[in-house]
Write a structure and sequence with these properties.
The radius of gyration is 27 Å and the shape is elongated. By secondary structure, the protein is an alpha+beta fold. It has three domains: about 50 residues, Molybdopterin biosynthesis moea protein, domain 2, CATH 3.90.105.10; about 110 residues, Alpha-Beta Complex (Aspartate Aminotransferase, domain 1); about 150 residues, MoaB/Mog-like domain (Molybdenum Cofactor Biosythetic Enzyme, Chain A, 3-Layer(aba) Sandwich). Strand 8 and strand 9 form a beta hairpin. The strands form six sheets. A six-stranded mixed sheet has the order 17-16-18-21-20-19, with helices on both faces. Strands 7-15-10-12 form a four-stranded mixed sheet. It is built from nine helices and 21 strands.
Length: about 325
């Protein structure tokens, strides 16, 4: 691709290299526009004699065609593709969802010379209508070989991002306190409601329990019968992991403890377990304030019924300092 200045009469079929404005600042023709006979007549009417243009050479594809070729393979789930001018395309969420991003694949694609992709954060909650990704190419033209290489990578390794819908999941909350379970509910329920409503959900099942191994085990058994998407244990104490009263109750129930400790602050004492594929979370100290903590990171994927692994939680350390 080679840019040059040509006579307006000879510009038909070529790509405009700069935006042209009318006197007063109103845009006449946008950069990247392919000029046609009508455009030439307009330019002549405006008194222009020459324009700065380029044209595709063999082995090149136009910027808009290149980004659309990649954007259609970029993601899956509740997504809508919206092309934009200037070698750009955007992906938007069509419903409330959790965004899952393959970081390694994204870095590999972004190492190419011709296309870059920006996405929302991995595991983030995205409301319907919000943009989740933008694809941008080099101006005007892209190597056809590079487009094919990116297309092949995405075909072989799958999409870079998933928009997993959060479709009215059932949420259960167990409030616990060593003296009186209702005390925990009085202290934490308002903040819990705010946090869940920010993700488009609410508390569907709520119990209060004395912070006792037997009492917690019975309460969890009762909540599990409802088969919620997630169970949150909101304790007024700071549990020390699987050995404390909450951890022992979870283990007694037959819960698999996936991970204790998260490289996230606030929320480092988080404990995540699974009982019959239903996640159970304990995150001491994270219920007193609506400020961002580990719950805001791990709840969206769990609400979208994505099983978070201990390895994925361990990867949260980069960016895990939230204060």
């Amino acid at each position: 691709m080679r840019a040059q200045t040509v006579d307006v009469k000879a510009s038909t079929g070529r790509i405009l290299c700069c935006t042209i404005f009318r006197p007063g600042g109103k845009k006449l023709l946008a950069k990247g526009h392919i000029l046609n006979d009508e455009d030439v007549r307009i330019l002549e009417t405006e008194g222009m004699q020459e324009v700065w243009v380029t044209q595709l050479e063999e082995g090149e594809v136009g910027e808009d065609e290149a980004v659309l070729e990649i954007a259609t393979r970029l993601g899956c789930g509740s997504l809508e593709l919206r092309p934009a001018a200037g070698g750009r395309a955007n992906l938007f969420a069509t419903e409330d969802c959790c965004l899952l991003v393959d970081d390694e694949l994204l870095k590999q694609i972004n190492c190419t010379a011709s296309v870059v992709i920006a996405t929302g954060a991995n595991f983030s909650f995205v409301p319907a209508g919000q943009r989740v990704a933008t694809i941008k190419s080099t101006p005007f033209a892209v190597s056809a070989a590079e487009v094919e290489a990116v297309r092949n990578i995405l075909t072989e390794r799958g999409p870079i991002l998933q928009a997993r819908p959060v479709q009215d999941p059932q949420v259960a909350v167990l409030y616990t306190d060593p003296v009186q379970g209702d005390r925990a509910r009085q202290l934490f329920e308002n903040i819990m409601r705010q946090r869940l409503e920010a993700m488009g959900v609410q508390q569907n099942y709520v119990l209060s329990s004395l912070e006792d191994e037997n009492a917690i085990c019975r309460a969890l058994q009762h909540l599990l019968r409802a088969k919620p998407a997630v169970i949150v244990i909101a304790s007024t104490t700071a549990p020390q992991g699987p050995e404390d009263v909450v951890g022992r109750a979870m283990l007694r129930l037959g819960t698999h403890i996936e991970r204790f400790l998260a490289p996230v602050e606030p929320g480092s004492l988080m404990m995540l377990g699974y009982k019959d594929e239903i996640p159970i979370i304990s995150a001491p100290g994270c219920y007193r304030s609506a400020k961002k903590n580990v719950l805001d990171i791990i709840l969206p994927p769990l609400l979208a019924r994505y099983r978070m692994s201990g390895w994925e939680i361990a990867s949260l350390g980069h960016g895990g300092l939230l204060i």
